[in-house]
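Narrative of accomplishments. A recurring question from our advisory board has been how the design workflow behaves on a single, concrete structure rather than in aggregate. To address it, we present the structure tokens for one chain from the evaluation set, followed by the sequence designed for it. No filtering or post-editing was applied between the two.
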């Protein structure tokens, strides 16, 4: 199904571009009436995209909860859980700092905003993006859910992770008495993965609608207006991809080629829908096929969706400094480093959904006296930028889970040895009861 789904998504992506661009050329005549008509048509298209993303949100919470609980329960002990957690967080911090620094370096080197010479707006001018200033007390207290039902209803991934960790650790402590509960949660994983297959069948339709909607309403001209800014950002994403894959090659060896092949499907899905969250179920399956033990993948991946959004990280420094350049505002090196550290903290826990990073940027701009209205500069092309950074988030989290698996003793056997003949490593990590997410719920011999 994976190859066919990828093909259909690519066909839908091209078809959406053709239809959206064609509608814009046929209807747009520069009048307000034509603009309203295009906006209405785009709204109809976006209904399909919205429905698909709602379907994804519907399965994310129970999928994260069930896979994480099962993974923690089969860690064996709390020492193993703590060890994997420390390794994961250590990787997340290093990857986040690198992404932020790369964005800062490129925007200073290529200077995409220099020369625009925009007049600085009044201090009261707003961008229309909700601003949420960072507050340490609120951030820390928000980590722990007041209600698991509320956390799942609002898809608060970080809160779901915390609650799932408590459940998994408690199951490990209780031991044999909790065995029926473990089997029930394993069955829930199997059911959610099957629902995922149903939902993914609608992905090409959602991709077509998303691209057609954007191009129909805005047309190709919006890309040309900020082409240099977009080009330099995508250059940064390419460099970040090469860096992440290069580190993976250094740590995992030639096996990295197979990882790249397996994450192609979720990567394209994230790119075409502009949502990291949409690709979560497929990324989990891809890591399983690649050989990352489920106990590692089900722990590192949901944690990464709160702490390891590499593409979004780079975009935050890149966009913030671009806006400052566009207004002719010079930030000293020390101020830029301070901005980097602020973004490092305020970005943790943001959701991998469209436009989430804009909220963090809006809060950061005000801290450095950069006009918040500058976000209007990039809002028009943010969807196209979000496509790239969402795909990058998928790569970053896939590499993170694979590296942690390597550090924890090695991989399981690759699922399809006829296509990818890589033997299972000898003397690998501790054996767990679950060898594959496909085996969950199946009777054991």
């Amino acid at each position: 199904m994976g190859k066919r789904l990828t093909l259909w998504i690519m066909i839908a992506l091209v078809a959406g571009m053709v239809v959206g661009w064609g509608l814009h050329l046929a209807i747009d005549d520069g009048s307000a009436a034509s603009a309203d008509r295009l906006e209405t048509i785009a709204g109809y298209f976006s209904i399909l995209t919205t429905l698909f993303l709602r379907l994804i949100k519907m399965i994310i919470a129970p999928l994260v909860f069930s896979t994480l609980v099962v993974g923690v329960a089969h860690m064996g002990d709390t020492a193993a859980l703590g060890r994997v957690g420390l390794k994961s967080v250590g990787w997340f911090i290093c990857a986040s700092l690198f992404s932020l620094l790369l964005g800062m370096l490129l925007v200073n080197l290529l200077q995409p905003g220099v020369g625009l010479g925009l007049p600085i707006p009044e201090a009261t001018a707003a961008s229309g993006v909700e601003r949420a200033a960072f507050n340490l007390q609120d951030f820390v207290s928000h980590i722990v859910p007041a209600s698991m039902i509320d956390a799942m209803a609002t898809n608060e991934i970080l809160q779901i992770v915390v609650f799932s960790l408590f459940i998994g650790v408690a199951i490990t402590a209780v031991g044999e008495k909790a065995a029926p509960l473990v089997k029930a949660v394993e069955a829930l994983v199997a059911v959610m993965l099957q629902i995922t297959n149903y939902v993914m069948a609608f992905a090409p339709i959602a991709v077509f609608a998303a691209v057609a909607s954007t191009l129909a309403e805005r047309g190709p001209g919006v890309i040309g207006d900020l082409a240099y800014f977009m080009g330099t950002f995508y250059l940064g994403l390419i460099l970040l991809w090469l860096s992440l894959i290069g580190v993976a090659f250094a740590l995992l060896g030639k096996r990295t080629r197979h990882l790249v092949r397996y994450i192609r499907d979720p990567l394209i899905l994230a790119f075409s829908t502009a949502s990291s969250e949409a690709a979560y179920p497929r990324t989990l399956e891809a890591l399983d096929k690649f050989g990352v033990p489920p106990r590692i993948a089900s722990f590192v991946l949901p944690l990464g969706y709160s702490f390891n959004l590499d593409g979004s990280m780079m975009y935050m420094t890149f966009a913030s400094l671009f806006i400052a350049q566009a207004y002719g505002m010079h930030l000293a090196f020390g101020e830029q480093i301070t901005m980097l550290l602020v973004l490092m903290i305020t970005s943790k826990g943001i959701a991998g959904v469209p436009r989430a990073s804009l909220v963090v940027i809006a809060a950061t701009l005000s801290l450095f006296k950069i006009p918040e209205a500058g976000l209007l500069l990039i809002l028009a092309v943010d969807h196209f930028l979000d496509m790239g950074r969402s795909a990058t988030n998928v790569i970053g989290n896939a590499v993170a889970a694979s590296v942690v698996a390597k550090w924890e003793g090695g991989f399981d056997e690759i699922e399809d040895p006829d296509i990818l003949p890589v033997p299972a490593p000898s003397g690998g990590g501790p054996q767990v009861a679950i060898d594959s997410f496909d085996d969950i719920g199946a009777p054991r011999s």
